[in-house]
Queue: 2 jobs
Job 1
Amino acid sequence: MTTPGREPITRADVIAVLAALGDRAAADVTERIGSLELAWLVSQVEQRYDTTLELTDETVRQMSTVTGAVVTLRELLPGAGDG
Amino acid sequence: MALRPASRSRAEDAQAPPFPSGAWVHDALLAGDPGAPCLLLGRSPVTRGELTCLVDKQQHLLELSGLRPRGSVALQLPPSVEYIATLLAAWRAGAQVSLLDHRLVRREVDNALERLAPQIVVTARSATAAPMAGYARVVAEATERAGGRPAATPHVLIQLSSGSTGPSKIIARTAADLTGELGRYAQLDEYPKRGERIVLLASIVHVLGLVGGLLHGLHAGVQLAFPDRLTADGIRDAVAIGAEPTVVLGVPFHAELLTAGGSPLPQLSRMVVAGELIRPWLPGAFTARYGVPLGTMYGMTELGVIATDLDGRHHPGVAPAPGMSLRVSDGELLVKMPASPYIGLVDDTRWVDGWLRTRDAATIDQATGLVTILGRLDSQISVGGLKVDLTEVEQTLCALPQVDSAVVTYGTVIEAYLVLRAGASVSDVESALADQLAPYKRPRELHVLDRLPRTATGKISRDRTVLGAAAGTSPAVGP
């Protein structure tokens, strides 16, 4: 994962985090994110970026796929936006 | 709670068997210091007195809706104070309560209600919860159900089996059985005691969270904390919210979540998990991070807690809980039980001559009495007179480098539902299996899925109907 607060989170970062749950290969991470995977992803990102994500029902819904999670996390992580 | 009136005939009541009064609810669960906080939802405490007031209110509303002693209620609410108060209220009113997981879909609920025939169904008219919260705020609604019948048995609690193995069973427990389980918890020295706190991550609809968490907490004077967020930081916040010695009660996933990061918490005295086998490295990793044990428990919906290793000293062994008699017969763990826990039993081989067949493979160390659970056993089938252990087939499949995960079932032929690893093909799996298993053991059909379906409680489903439906969108390939 990139340096907290400096670089935008990438798809590879999200997949790497998800793959760590169950010791999977990155290629075995599915596009759809289940509820346990989401709890794992949020926990790991909050820990690594030392932040608490401001989640809403909408952002949680958006994070049900890897693609949506990448977009949402880029918006939520302080100082880690891609703009 | 909104109400719709119910009505029942005197003839129905006259035919009902003796049913316990609801006095046990006060005696075992509600009695105690009314000023002491018994629940903690995020940072909001609910005292025992406040909870009792809510129970009074819910009982009044249920009785206004027509509920009478020996009545029947189905409760389908998310984890909430309203769920707790309504459950206790219905019990205290002398009713039999069926618990339905709030995540069940309409078809599953309709099927359950058809089988259970409750007189009153309590559901959420509205429910709000913060994202990923461990509890909800609910407006409950009680509705009379046409064709509902009063309790036909003296059981106060009805639960459906998880459905992970075949058609769900109706599991019934008496008040005496529940208070007996509370007595077992009270005798476990390492289990939370008065003045301590449980951070409750396990569902309070299912036996671990319901009896081991909610009812034990109320019975023993242990505060129950429901986290604002079911994330690692959210759980740690719930542990750190007060000074009381704290036990985290959950399933193995929660332990993995906490083990992935974080610093020792001075309040944390141990974590206890149950519900499925844990990965071998987890207890050591958890203790290395937090300096406290990761304990395990083994139990069943039919009986509650059966065996424990709360200090993590015996892993993977567990010691029988006080009063539990266990033996192994033909590799299967049997638990002594005075009466069948099933209503409308379909499979009458599950409870035989005072012993419940767990369908779990196990060994018992004769020297220590410790039990090691090996996995599910209800998987041996006969193919042309040859015995095949489907667990063996499944484990063989799962061990293949081409396979991510798999479930093997048997209807008329052996079938496998599997998730492939990237780049693997069905023919690769077939070739690999040919090296691993005799021909009669090999699955006749391989159904490739994107992911294995899970039950409402998160367990991988073994229901062939569910698996078949999932496979409907994926190719089914025969060898």
Job 2
Amino acid sequence: MKKELNLVVNGESYNLWVEPGTLLVQVLRDELGFKGTKRSCDSGSCCACTVILDGKAVKSCSILALQANGKKVLTVEGLADGANLHPIQQAFIDNWAFQCGFCTSGQMMAAKALLDENDNPTREEIQRAMDGHLCRCTGYNMINEAIQDAAKRLRERK
Amino acid sequence: MKDIIFDFEYLTPKTLKEALELLSKYDEGECKVIAGGQSLLVLMKHKLITPNYLIDIKGLSDLDYIKLDDKQGLKIGALTTHRAIETSPIIQKEFTVLSEMEQNVSSVETRNWGTIGGNVCHGDPGGDPTPVLIALNANLKLTSLKGERTIKAEDFTSNYYETALQHDELLTEIQVPNLAPNTGVKFTKFSQIAGDYANASAAVSITLDNKEICSDVRIALGSVAVAPMRAKKAEDILKGKKISDELLAEAGQIASEEASPTTDAEVSAEYKKELVKVLVRRVGKEALERAKKA
């Protein structure tokens, strides 16, 4: 039986009815069209579907949409300010931190959650925050460097 | 894509009492409790669990707390997230081993949403919290409409994904007694990638008297039996003695004989036995060092 779901995604309120078994990632992608959030392993093992829920990075494939009722979601679409990329996005580009890009939205959302809490993380702190994210293309060094670079850009912007 | 493809009714009790009333209203097998769901949803996607009613207790904020009392010890509400335990200054200072263990439970994303109570009730023999809670001699408070009871963490898990929790009960609190003076506790797991389930894990707690004789010791093992287990024969080897490297090696050998692992997708039973031998020796040594400095 469908239930009502209220969700704020990237600052906009949405109201819809969903089956209880619907995962948060399904609502974001299939109901609301935020296809920047990727589905990959679907079993909570790869972090590609990471979004920020009430300030915390979570796996949207491992949460029922109804469990997010009344909460605020930030997806990769909410990072840029109009045509201006977010410093994390620009740092990922400038540091060659992706190739195919499939894991990148999840990586950037985890980086955002980390940098919101800690504006100057060490290399090791970045590794710890990102250790669930699987990337099959770049190796992880460039991602780490991109996040350090993004942290620097964000600090300078303050 | 792996979706949840069966119908069920989703219930969100607002209080613990409401949750318990729902539990007692439905038959066993008809309903299931979800907290963070980080393990449960995978089982539901694979239709290994197909409840008609899903009772979501994640919103019961009364069960989300960390309290430390000089006399009664540490109390953790069952719905406290892994991440809250990991980052709690009180736990980092007074029960360091719990925070260290949490650092390697899956990934930050899982720890932000998953709860310690859900993990313990999931009853996976390879889970990380239960062996540490066993080494810390923790009790679990179980609550039903009939009242409350406590059970030792070591008696809670009985088999793969089976626990002592009755159908009408919820795990509500984890109670960890204050550490005795001169006690050191350490946990290590061996896994294929960071944050993965353990192929084998060991938690060791050692208490020394004023002559550095081992007055108490608890050794808990994960992922090497149908449930987290204590290696009591290995403990007996250490108790009442001044612990040396040789004695720890002997304890590791005995613990390895006590373990009854099965081969899993990653490593063989034989390899797990070898892991126990090494882990108990190494983790025991680190616990000993901590006890000397405590």
